[in-house]
Every structure is written in structure tokens, then in C-alpha cells.
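User: I'll paste a sequence; please echo it back and then give the predicted structure.

Assistant: Echoing your sequence first, then the prediction.
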Amino acid sequence: MQSPTLAVGGVVWRGGDVLLIRRGRQPFKGHWSIPGGKVDFGETLESALTREIREETGIEASLKGLVGAFESITAHGHYVMIDYACQWLAGEPQAADDALDAAFFSFAEAMEKVGWDETRNVISLSKSLITP
């Protein structure tokens, strides 16, 4: 019996800008999304997220609050994603690991680039968790 894959995602804010990555692997290869990935056995959610952000973008970020839990069930698999609002601490985005591109975009640009309604919802919800 197969189990869902546990993953984390982070909406990283730098001022009014949002960090996005262009995915290099399925699901949604080539699409813009928030950085994140699978949680390894024995790894906390928070550790997995800061690791994934660093591996995909070179950015250091701190977690500011839980946005929520979301699911994706497609031909690519069943994913349970725990998403957080994060604050940029250091670094400039450089695509690495399984990201084809990484950059900060204004909130409006980020909402246009992201193709999945659930991710746009996560970005919107995360705004209230970040102190200006």
C-alpha cells in the first residue's frame, strides 16, 4: 500500500517581494511555485523547509508562521504539503538542486506567475503572518 508523500513549502518574503522557483522536476515541471520539497525521515518540518529553501535558492530564511496544510492528488502522486510564511534573512536567489530558476517577484507578479490556485491562496494567506 502506498502512502502520501509529506512535503513542506515556504512563502519567503523580502519586503513586499515573494521568492519563487521554477520547478525542474515533476510534478509541475517548468511551472513557477514556492520553494520546498520532501521531508526526510527523522527531519522536522522546520528543518526540512529551511534546508529545501537553501538547497533550491541559496536563500537563508526564518519561519514566521504556519499557513496551512494542503493536498495534491494527481497522476504524479499524492502529496500532503505543510506550508509556512517565511522572512528572508540573507542571500540572493540562485537556482540550484531541482529548481530551474529562482527570483523575487512583487506580490502581483508572483500571483500572475504561479499557475496553481492553491499556491496563490497560500501566498495570499501568508501575507498576514509577515510583519512589515
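The chain has a mean pLDDT of 94. The first strand starts at residue 5 and ends at 14.
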